[in-house]
Amino acid sequence: MFAQSRRKVVINIFAFLIIVSTLIIYAKEEGVVGRTQKNRKGCTCHNEVPSSDVLVSISGPDTLQVSQTAVYNVTISSNSIKAAGTNIAASDGELYPVSNDLKILKGELTHTSPKYSSSGKVTFQFSYSSPQIAGTQSLYASGNSVNMNGKKTGDSWNYAPTKTISIIGKKF
User: Fold this and answer.
1) Which CATH number goes with the domain that contains 121?
2) Confidence band of 150 (pLDDT split at 50, 70, 90)
3) Residue 59 domain-assigned?
4) Would you say residue 132 lies in a domain?
5) What span, in angstroms and rounded, lies between the C-alpha atoms of 59 and 148?
6) Left (φ > 0), alpha (ψ -120 to 50) or beta: where does 17 sit?
7) Number of domains within the chain
8) Using only C-alpha atoms, what is the Rg of the chain?
9) Is pTM, for the whole model, over 0.85?
10) Residue 18: per-residue pLDDT
């Protein structure tokens, strides 16, 4: 009787651990925020330190009018990339996904699921709307290169150089 009860407890604990592990992995696949140079935390769920093997860049206009919206790209490349994810933040202004591969979470953008590579790179497109005040603003991004084995091994990440945008004009 005791052995049967003990076996049920062990089975329940094992089932619980499987469910929790699956939820943790699934949550990470749906992206995280607060992992850019704006917050200086990095994508430590994939590796503790950034890797120079992963190149992350932000491209788009260097100058905007106040309250203007423009399209930008974050590109992640690596020799070992199978899929990638990203986190994008702004010092001020608003970020918007252009397609369904990004979503807004806590005022930042993150991937909705790993995006598979084409020719050794992955690009995420988004819109940035500048604030109503002239000045200098910054866009921040981090990107990860993952091998989709469900483990940290073989995964790498890096920060993009901060993209500085001059906001000109006055809002009347």
Assistant:
1) 2.60.40.10
2) confident
3) yes
4) yes
5) 26
6) alpha
7) 1
8) 20
9) no
10) 45
